[in-house]
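Retro notes, item 3 of 5
We never archived the inputs for the zinc ion complex last cycle. Fixing that now. Sequence and ligand:
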Amino acid sequence: MNPAAASAGSTLRLRPGDQPLPHEGGEPVQERLIGMIKERRTLGIQRYGRPLETFNGRNAVQDALDEALDLATYLTQVRMEQEARQKGVAQALSLHTADASGLCSTCRTQSPCPTRQALVAPHHLQGHAPTDGAR
Ligand SMILES: [Zn+2]
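Structure as it came back at the time:
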């Protein structure tokens, strides 16, 4: 964790309904974003012969609003798709739960079976992973 996050963590208070404070994760996001912005700049120069510049004859507020509406639409699509995936994962998890003898009720192998491990383990790649309450 970087020093700023560590000190922020010591002063922030969680309120009911807040998400948990972020913990150490996987890939750094801003580095990816910076690379994507550089790619967009290159694409813009290829398409329009120049990078995005001030006073370019376009209504930037309208462009931004149009893009924001598209963004909200795509984010809603992503959320809907995530919810559908989570529902499928939850259904699969319910089928791969240990019985009284400690075996997966579907695979009949020691629980957590490989299917359950695959559904639960890569949570850092899935965004919102189901919590693995039942083994
Ligand atoms: Zn199983």
